[in-house]
Amino acid sequence: MTSFSGFDPKAFKFLEELTDNQNRVWFAEHRSEYEEFVREPMKRFTEVLSVNFAKKDIPLWGDPKRSLFRINRDARFSKAKHPYNMHASGLFTRTGDKHSSGVLYFRLDPLGSRCAAGYLQPEAHILKKLRQGILENPKAWVALEKSLKKKDYELDYSHTLARIPRGFDDVPIEVERAIKLKGWIIRRQLPRSTICSKNLTNEITDFAKDMLPLLSFGWHALAKFTE
Predict the structure, then answer these.
(1) Threshold 0.85, pTM exceeds
(2) I need a surface site. Which of 10, 122, 211, 223 has the fewest CB within 10 A?
(3) Is 167 left (phi over 0), alpha (psi -120 to 50) or beta?
């Protein structure tokens, strides 16, 4: 399969109804709708988008078995005890699984679908290397942010430390904010008209191409700096 015609609007209908029917009996009765309009299309979307990425030399891909998140929630450590996610989502990485650093994320959501890219909630040792990458070449980082901004992309600066982290001395003022970041994330909202159209994979492929400099900056840092 080399094309994907978009998600059926019934995918949103199912997820909206699931939001109002968070119980296993209802889900069992409607599992066929989940499989037909959500799970199987997500698998096809993942396969087609991976082919698109390869054609554009974007080193990201998704595996329908490993890259998609389950609809069932693990509520053991959450205050919210509803058993099912009210959206469908997956990750595209260099390895095809969810544990590789530097990702593209896709979320099918009746409350607002979107894609995102970067280093989402990285572990401490990964985040340290990303910060070292910025500190090693602050001019390149500033140039990267400027080039992204020209394309109307901005990093999410809502999650930062109050102070420069320990071990980072003599940080140039122009990258102080970046050094304080807890992760690198750029998001793009996707209207339903796009989600349900054949242009969806092209739209996300273009987004991934735009995000490649950010991902590559991080990959370089992870390869260079070791514990």
Answers:
(1) yes
(2) 223
(3) left
The count of residues in the chain is 227
Determine contact, residues 204/103, Cβ cutoff 8 Å.
Answer: no
Token pair, residue 198, equals 């054949």
Q: What is the mean pLDDT of each run of 10 residues along the chain (227 residues)?
A: 88 96 95 97 96 96 93 77 92 92 97 96 94 96 97 96 92 96 97 97 97 97 84
The residues that bridge with 187 in the sheet, in sequence order, are 116
Sequence letter at residue 69 = F
Residue 97 amino acid letter = D
CATH number for the domain formed by residue range(s) 10-224? 3.30.930
Q: Is 132 exposed, middle or buried (0-12, 13-18, 19+ CB in 10 A)?
A: middle
Give the position of tokens 């994330």: 185
218: Cβ contacts below 8 Å, ≥ 6 apart = 101, 102, 118, 119, 130, 133, 184
